[in-house]
Structure formats: structure tokens, C-alpha cells
């Protein structure tokens, strides 16, 4: 049902805290599940153990699959020394340590899919039968979804195989699931801290084998001294002229839009792709900007799209890490519409054939009601429930009325907290009801 709604009707997938129109807040969007990427015939993920560069850069990667261990200490160290690293993470570890996962993403570290439960995909190191394709799909997808829901970060297209167990079948299956890079580590740069090596041995191992473009394997768990070794290791590498990069820095995932000469990257790209994309939000029409939130007065990183404004709040728990502007209410205010009679609160229902919202004192009728009721978030309710629709568009803040739009024609419209419905009877269903391009019309 959810996929049918999303693909056929171009859902806007938004999660909100339902609040009063009296105290407007930006609206957070909810995650949407993603259909598996179509397999490419013969394609394989690229296995990488070192980057080809003469620049003295090194990628520190720390796997997290057992206990929380030194993770908090590691993050404190990285923040103090202004270093970004990459964390290979199992889904189960993420579920057990949501605050740490959220902090990793919020502080700019890259996250890599390390399966859900650290099962060897090939069985080589565990001396077990290789996982079937379906078992591999479960391990990879489960971790992907857990990490996304906990942090708002997308681990795709980066994967690290448990135990380093990989072969051509793994590379092929990764590609089928949309993972382009199978991230290993440079020869000699597994610190083996989990085997009981001392801080000094860990540091010496790295310094003796590091070279430009190297990938270092470390672990966050308490059985390893990798965490305690990290501060001195960073200092020693810097003394040798090295700087630090994440896997995502070396393999950036940037989506270009020549139609508007704009690009999407990082959490903005992930969010746009996972919650509706072009059909829902339209093209990006700005770069990332620092802008003051009109409701809170605080500065935030934002990006504008044809029909929405994204505001990044990376320290918030998903789905509230990305807030969507209340552009319906803002557009109505900007146009001076709030004084019109159609925006005035009605004391009671006056049309029995319509749905009446006492919270704002407005009706929802006819084709607009049909559209509103056909779209909603997935709260696992039967069909599309009213609370799902309410979470999607917010409350109506006007009655229906006619308005001249940017095409120069008069159309029947209705305003909601986060949208403007427009009736275009010249279009066949479901495109006779369109969402206004409020992002493009928003002054900046």
C-alpha cells in the first residue's frame, strides 16, 4: 500500500509533532522505505583497500560491532582534534547505542554498513556455509534501515565486510543492492588492537606502514586499545605531515542537477532521495545556506527546493533531524491572505458534506478532501488514516477560494500549514490536484 501511494501519487513523506496553529513550528519529515536498486547485469562493487593519491592523506576507519567500549572517548578525541573518520557499524550496535550513532553523524563522520549482526557473508572466517542471497539482503538492508532511522545518515554506497570476508559473489550482491564500494583496509594497517596489542604497538604499526591514501582499520570496543591510542596516533601522523579524510571525502556522493545548476550532497541528498525526491520536492533551487529559523531565531543550514525548504538539525533524533518549513502558512502571510474571509476561523461546521477541523475552524471538501485522504504517512494504520494525512499536510488554514497563480490563470486553491492545494481540472487524475511551488515562490 505504501509503495503504491508513494509511486503513484508522489507522496510527501513527513513526520511531524502535531502542534497548534497558534505556536507554529517547522515540520520534520519522516523516513520512507526504499525499493531495492535494480541489479545491473554483471556489475560488481569496487573493492578498495587504498586510494591512489600522492597527497599525504589517511583514512582512519573504526569498526563498531561489539560493545560501546571507547566510542564516547573516541568521539571526544576527534572533536578536540578536529578530525573526521569513518565508522563501520553493525545495525545491532547502532540499535544498542543510538545516541553515539546520532553523534557520529551529527559531527560529520562517515558511516559504513557493516551488516546487521556481523555474520560472515562467505563463511570463510567462521567456517560456516556462505550466506544465501536472501540472507545477505537481510543483513545489509536491516543495518541500512536501522542506521538511517537512528541517525538520518545513509550508509549506502559504502560497505565493509565482516572479518574482511569477501569474494566476487559478495561484490556482485553488493552492487545489486546499490552498494558501489566494498571498503577494506591497506595491507599492514589492521592495528589488531582486539588481539590485545598495547597502545605503543598500535601506534607503531600504523606509523611503520602508513602511506598516502592508506586506509587504517581500528575498533571501538573495550577489548581493544585502539581508542586510548588514538590521541597520540593523530598527533604523530600530523607530525609526519598527514591530514585526515573520511571514506565519503574520498568517494563523494554528489548529485548534480543541470536543470537548476544546483547539487545535493550529504544528509540533504539522502533525505531528498528517501522521502519523495523530484516528484515531491522538485529540483533544488539553492545551495546550502546559513539562515535564521523564523520561528526559533536560531541559525541553521538550509536548502531550498521548488516546493519545500529543508532545515538540517543533525543533533535531533530522526525524523526531526531534517525539518520542513511551514511554507503554506508562510506563503499565506506573505501574500497578505490571512485577512481574507476564507482564512477566518469558523465557530462551527457549516457544511455537513465536508470534514471540519475544529483546531483551525476550517472545512475540507470534495476533490481536495479526496486528495488529502488518499495521501499520508505510513503509521501502519489500515488504509490511509486521518492522522497519517494530517501528519503529511498539516491542518487546513483556509477554506477553498479562487486565486490567480503564476501561470496567470485563476484556480481553486486551499491552504494548509505546509502546502497549498491547487485544482487543475485540465489534468487527468491524480494530477488534477497539484501542490504549489511554495519553495520557489518563497522570497530569500
Reconstruct the topology from this structure.
Layout: H1 2-9, E1 27-28, E2 46-48, E3 57-64, H2 71-81, E4 86-89, H3 91-96, H4 98-106, E5 110-113, H5 133-151, E6 158-159, H6 168-176, E7 181-183, H7 199-209, E8 214-219, H8 226-239, E9 243-244, H9 247-250, E10 254-257, E11 262-265, H10 266-274, H11 277-281, E12 289-292, E13 299-305, E14 308-312, E15 322-324, H12 327-334, E16 355-357, E17 362-364, H13 366-374, H14 386-393, E18 401-404, E19 410-415, E20 420-423, E21 433-435, H15 438-441
Parallel strand pairs: 2-7, 3-4, 3-8, 3-9, 4-5, 6-7
Antiparallel strand pairs: 1-15, 10-11, 12-13, 13-14, 14-15, 16-17, 18-19, 19-20, 20-21
Helix pairs in contact: 2-8, 7-8
Question: What does it look like?
Answer:
The protein is an alpha/beta fold and 444 residues long. It folds into two domains: 2-32 and 275-441, no CATH class; 46-250, Alpha-Beta Barrel (TIM Barrel). The chain is 30% helix and 19% strand. Strands 1-15-14-13-12 form a five-stranded antiparallel sheet. Strands 3, 4, 5, 8 and 9 form a five-stranded parallel sheet that branches. It has a four-stranded antiparallel sheet with strand order 18-19-20-21, sandwiched between helices. A hairpin with a 4-residue loop joins strand 16 and strand 17. Helix 2 (71-81) runs parallel beside helix 8 (226-239). The chain is elongated and about 80 Å long. The chain starts with a helix and ends with a helix.
Amino acid at each position: 500500500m505504501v509503495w503504491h501511494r508513494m509511486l503513484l501519487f508522489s507522496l510527501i513523506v513527513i513526520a511531524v509533532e502535531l502542534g497548534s496553529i497558534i505556536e507554529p513550528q517547522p515540520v520534520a519529515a519522516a523516513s520512507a522505505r526504499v525499493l531495492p536498486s535494480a541489479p545491473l547485469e554483471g556489475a560488481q562493487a569496487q573493492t578498495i583497500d587504498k586510494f591512489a593519491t600522492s597527497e599525504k592523506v589517511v583514512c582512519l576507519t573504526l569498526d563498531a560491532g561489539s560493545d560501546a567500549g571507547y566510542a564516547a572517548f573516541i568521539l571526544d578525541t576527534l572533536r578536540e582534534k578536529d578530525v573526521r573518520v569513518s565508522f563501520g557499524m553493525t545495525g545491532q550496535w547502532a540499535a544498542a547505542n543510538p545516541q553515539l550513532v546520532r553523534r557520529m553523524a551529527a559531527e560529520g563522520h562517515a558511516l559504513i554498513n557493516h551488516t546487521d549482526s556481523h555474520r560472515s557473508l562467505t563463511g570463510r572466517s567462521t567456517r560456516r556455509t556462505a550466506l544465501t542471497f536472501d540472507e545477505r539482503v537481510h543483513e545489509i538492508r536491516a543495518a541500512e534501515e536501522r542506521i538511517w532511522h537512528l541517525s538520518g545518515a545513509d550508509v549506502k554506497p559504502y560497505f565493509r565486510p565482516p572479518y574482511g570476508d569477501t569474494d566476487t559473489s559478495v561484490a556482485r550482491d553488493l552492487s545489486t543492492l546499490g552498494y558501489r564500494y566494498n571498503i577494506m583496509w591497506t595491507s599492514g594497517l589492521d592495528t589488531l588492537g582486539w588481539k590485545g596489542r598495547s597502545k605503543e604497538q598500535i601506534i607503531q604499526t600504523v606509523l611503520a606502514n602508513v602511506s598516502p591514501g592508506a586506509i587504517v582499520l581500528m575498533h571501538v570496543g573495550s577489548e581493544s586499545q585502539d581508542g586510548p591510542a588514538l590521541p597520540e596516533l593523530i598527533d604523530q601522523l600530523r607530525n609526519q605531515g598527514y591530514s585526515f579524510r573520511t571514506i565519503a571525502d574520498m568517494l563523494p556522493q554528489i548529485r548534480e542537477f543541470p536543470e537548476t545548476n544546483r547539487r545535493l550532497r550529504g544528509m540533504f541528498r539522502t533525505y531528498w532521495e528517501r522521502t519523495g525526491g523530484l516528484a515531491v520536492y522538485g529540483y533544488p533551487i539553492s545551495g546550502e545556506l546559513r539562515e535564521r529559523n523564523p520561528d526559533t531565531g536560531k541559525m541553521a543550514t538550509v536548502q531550498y527546493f521548488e516546493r519545500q525548504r529543508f532545515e538540517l538539525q543533525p543533533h535531533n533524533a530522526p525524523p526531526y533531524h531534517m525539518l520542513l518549513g511551514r511554507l503554506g502558512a508562510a506563503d499565506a502571510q506573505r501574500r497578505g491572505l490571512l485577512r481574507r474571509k476564507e482564512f477566518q476561523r469558523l465557530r462551527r461546521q457549516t457544511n455537513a458534506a465536508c470534514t471540519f477541523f475544529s483546531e483551525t475552524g476550517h472545512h475540507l471538501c470534495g476533490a481536495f478532501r479526496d486528495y488529502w485522504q488518499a495521501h499520508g504517512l505510513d503509521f501502519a494504520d489500515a488504509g490511509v488514516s486521518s492522522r497519517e494525512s494530517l501528519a503529511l499536510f498539516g491542518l487546513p488554514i483556509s477554506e477553498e477560494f479562487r486565486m490567480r497563480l503564476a501561470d496567470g490563470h485563476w484556480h481553486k486553491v486551499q491552504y494548509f500549514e505546509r502546502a497549498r492545494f491547487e485544482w487543475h481540472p485540465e489534468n487527468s487524475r491524480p494530477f488534477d490536484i497539484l501542490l504549489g511551488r511554495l519553495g520557489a515562490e518563497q522570497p530569500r
